[in-house]
Design goal:
The chain has helices spanning 12-36, 64-83, 110-120, and strands at 52-56, 95-96, 99-100, 125-130, 134-139, 145-148, 154-159, 162-169, 172-179, 183-191, 197-205, 212-220, 228-233, 237-242. The protein has 247 residues and is an alpha+beta fold.
Length: 247
């Protein structure tokens, strides 16, 4: 006696058809997901993420007067060593590509350089916006620092009053500003791998003098709404007040 095998499993053809449809849908979705994945561009350098709102960590930042005293002691030790016939060791300079930064020296006194470093590092907060094309550093009372992602030094500004170059030294973002009378200002930005802290080393150098370096550390924080104006203080921490129409 011949039996119809499907008579014992009346729903099997429907189940088989449903499985086939589900398989085709999954195959199509997988193909769509593969097409939707971004392609890895090996020509585009990998950059760390600097974006966010940052506030100064005074406990981990240099005090310009303490740093000035340290530099003055070093200069006295070097002068004593030279008087004794000991030649001081030369230190490697920061470079972008094959271009050395701060290769020129200056005549300005180290005290004046320290005051300049303290003045241009006065911001207690900053905002950094970053995308695949550029990094933009917003600082209150200062022009923004903007740099692209490409490898090698890039001139971002030039006029009779000075010029600005930026570039990447491995994972560091570097800006060099040249002002009249051979005054050089260099900012080196580096961010922690976990993105929680940001360090800026500002170097001021003039024609015939040694550079003065000031290191500032910033921590990421949640910026308040735009209607509030906040500053970071040593004694009271963050102090906020509501903005007025004149702010």
């Amino acid at each position: 006696m011949t039996h119809n095998v499907f008579s014992f499993f009346p729903f099997k053809p429907l189940a088989h058809a449903g499985f086939t449809t589900l398989f085709l849908l999954c195959l199509g979705a997988n193909s769509y997901a593969q097409d939707d994945l971004p392609l890895l561009d090996l020509d585009t350098p990998v950059r760390l993420n600097f974006s966010g709102s940052w506030e100064k960590d005074f406990a981990r930042s240099d005090n310009w007067e303490d740093e000035l005293n340290r530099v003055m002691r070093m200069r006295q030790e070097q002068a004593a060593a030279q008087a004794a016939g000991i030649r001081p060791l030369s230190r490697p300079r920061v470079s972008i590509g094959n271009i050395n930064l701060g290769s020129s020296r200056g005549r300005s006194g180290i005290v004046n350089l320290a005051r300049v470093a303290e003045y241009i590092s006065r911001q207690t907060t900053m905002e950094i916006i970053q995308d695949r094309n550029q990094v933009r550093i917003e600082r209150k009372g200062e022009a923004p620092l903007i740099c692209g992602m490409e490898t090698g030094p890039t001139q971002t500004f030039s006029s009779p009053h000075g010029s600005e170059f930026c570039g990447w030294n491995r994972l560091q973002l570097i800006f060099e500003i040249t002002l009249p009378e051979e005054l050089y200002i260099t900012h080196q930005f580096s961010v922690a791998a976990n993105g929680s802290s940001l360090q800026i080393v500002t170097s001021i150098q003039s024609d015939n003098g040694i550079p003065f370096n000031l290191r500032q550390t910033y921590s990421k924080y949640d910026a308040p709404p735009d209607e509030y104006n906040c500053i970071q203080t040593i004694s009271r921490g963050r102090v906020c007040s509501q903005r007025t129409p004149l702010d």
